[in-house]
TrEMBL record:
This is L,D-transpeptidase family protein. InterPro entries: LD-transpeptidase (IPR050979), LD_TPept_cat_dom (IPR005490), Transpep_catalytic_dom (IPR038063). The active site is at 147 (proton donor/acceptor), 174 (nucleophile). PANTHER family: L,D-TRANSPEPTIDASE, L,D-TRANSPEPTIDASE YCIB-RELATED. Pathway: Cell wall biogenesis; peptidoglycan biosynthesis. It comes from Furfurilactobacillus rossiae. It holds the Pfam family YkuD. Residues 41-60 are annotated as: Disordered. One of its GO terms (cellular component) is extracellular region. GO terms for biological process: cell wall organization; peptidoglycan-protein cross-linking; regulation of cell shape. It comes from the Bacteria.
């Protein structure tokens, strides 16, 4: 057998041995790894999508599905400042209830308004050091909005305002909603929909 062939066989044997030992060590490490760390990694991976919290992390408004507005072409929105709720209405029938947080110091105007054409998936307001997902204008063309609870500059949901949903006013005049509720309003509520904001 030539020296070149012997060297080649030795190299192949070494590569083969290293790959078997490496795979064995990897399998051994995986089997001895605590299940809790695997579970926490899976949870961490599932919790954010593009830095945006998923619906499982936000305040659960109700367990019922959102209404199909094709069946309710006259649907309108009622915002209760007293109860910190947004109601999707059909006439006097309440179709859906959302937890909300309205403006501090009576900064959310009351009255009858209409959903305006302006809407978007994200904004950031340096003046307030806050941004939000899924916004829909209902007064003054981009000034007063429905939108998600606020985010920081890196688009992470701020825990304080999120905890205020359904409990107390914490906005600068807009109507804060949970991530899934804001997304539904953004995707579903048509321009021109009536919005009534009342103190009671």
């Amino acid at each position: 057998m030539s020296i070149k062939l012997k060297h080649m066989l030795v190299v192949v044997f070494i590569i083969f041995t290293v790959s078997i030992v490496g795979n064995f060590a990897k399998a051994s490490f995986a089997s001895t790894r605590p299940q809790s760390s695997l579970k926490s990694e899976k949870v961490a991976k599932s919790k954010t999508v593009n830095n945006k919290k998923t619906s499982s992390e936000t305040v659960a408004t109700t367990n019922k599905p959102y209404p199909n507005l094709v069946q309710y072409p006259q649907a309108w929105i009622l915002v209760s400042l007293k109860h910190q709720r947004v109601y999707i209405m059909n006439g006097k029938q309440r179709l859906y209830t959302m937890l909300a947080s309205t403006g501090m110091h009576d900064s959310t105007p009351t009255g009858t308004f209409h959903v305006e054409a302006e809407r978007g998936t994200y904004f950031y307001a340096p003046k307030f050091n806050e941004g939000a997902y899924d916004w829909v204008s209902w007064k003054d063309h981009g000034v007063y909005l429905f939108h998600s609870t606020p985010t920081d500059e890196q688009k992470h949901i701020l825990p304080g305002p999120e905890a205020d949903l359904g409990k107390r006013p914490s906005s600068h005049g807009c109507v804060h909603l949970s991530i899934p509720d804001a997304r539904w309003v953004y995707e579903t509520i048509p321009t021109g929909t009536t919005v009534k904001i009342v103190r009671s």
